[in-house]
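Example for tutorial group B:
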């Protein structure tokens, strides 16, 4: 496998753009048996207009065709021999590979190309196929060209060593109406969502204020999931049975967690229980 390069060139248009006409006769389609390899698929526009949404949902459930165990073909370039890098599947969940054409395609562009046009080189990832393995930056550019607005969410939690770990999630919907998550700058942020902690929503030095200094369009909304959690906690505290249960559970966790010896005892009891369940056939080993 080769390293994922960052340089990029114009990937150019395709000469084989499928027809956008839709048949007038509605035929029966088995959504559980849709063609997996992009080479075997008819254009999305070839389906009846009343069936296209069902076909789209069927492919979204199947997800992109990513034959990770395939023996990818090598190609010669001026910079050396290159081939498809299976790690690109992890980086781009929309990316597909045709084992028949030995080219890559975009599932999202195949499903929605007709409704949003061919901007950003979509036609290459629908009908022509992309196979210039020396220029993988074209894949990244394809994502950037289809990105418009986004929102950002941040939260912190403590790991097992009691060290604070911050996670920043940028969520956006691209032109294909597909929800994506990535890490990006704040220039195009249109929303922020955090809990009510002062270091997050502080008026002067909170993260919300720092982002608003760079982008006034990044409107803040108190995280609804956190609001729901606060409501549930408040209601649970008013219920005697629930309150006593969580108090007892907290004491058990604190008692066991404060002693390495008690932890080892609990792990040993768990091992014995799992061992007995395996011997009784109640648990499978995965072999």
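The residue assignment follows.
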């Amino acid at each position: 496998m080769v390293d994922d390069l960052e340089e990029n060139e114009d990937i150019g248009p395709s000469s084989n753009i499928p027809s956008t006409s839709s048949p007038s006769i509605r035929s029966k389609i088995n959504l559980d048996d849709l063609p997996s390899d992009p080479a075997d698929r008819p254009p999305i526009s070839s389906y009846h207009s009343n069936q296209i949404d069902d076909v789209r949902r069927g492919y979204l459930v199947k997800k992109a065709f990513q034959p990770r165990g395939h023996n990818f073909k090598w190609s010669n370039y001026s910079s050396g021999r290159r081939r498809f890098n299976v790690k690109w599947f992890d980086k781009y969940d929309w990316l597909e590979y045709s084992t028949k054409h030995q080219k890559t395609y975009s599932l999202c562009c195949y499903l929605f190309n007709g409704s949003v046009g061919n901007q950003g080189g979509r036609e290459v990832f629908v009908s022509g196929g992309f196979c210039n393995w020396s220029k993988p930056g074209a894949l990244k550019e394809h994502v950037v060209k289809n990105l418009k607005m986004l929102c950002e969410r941040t939260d912190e939690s403590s790991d097992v060593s009691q060290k604070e770990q911050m996670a920043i999630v940028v969520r956006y919907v691209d032109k294909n109406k597909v929800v994506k998550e990535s890490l990006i700058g704040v220039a195009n942020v249109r929303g922020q969502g955090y809990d009510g902690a002062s270091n997050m929503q502080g008026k002067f030095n909170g993260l919300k204020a720092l982002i608003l200094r760079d982008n006034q369009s990044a409107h803040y909304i108190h995280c609804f999931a956190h609001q729901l959690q606060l409501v549930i906690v408040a209601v649970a505290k008013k219920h005697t049975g629930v309150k006593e249960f969580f108090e007892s559970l907290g004491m058990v966790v604190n008692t066991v967690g404060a002693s390495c010896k008690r932890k080892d005892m609990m792990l040993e009891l768990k091992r014995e229980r799992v061992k007995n369940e395996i011997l009784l056939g109640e648990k499978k080993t995965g072999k």
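The longest helix spans residues 260-279. Compare this with the pattern of hydrophobic and polar residues in the output above.
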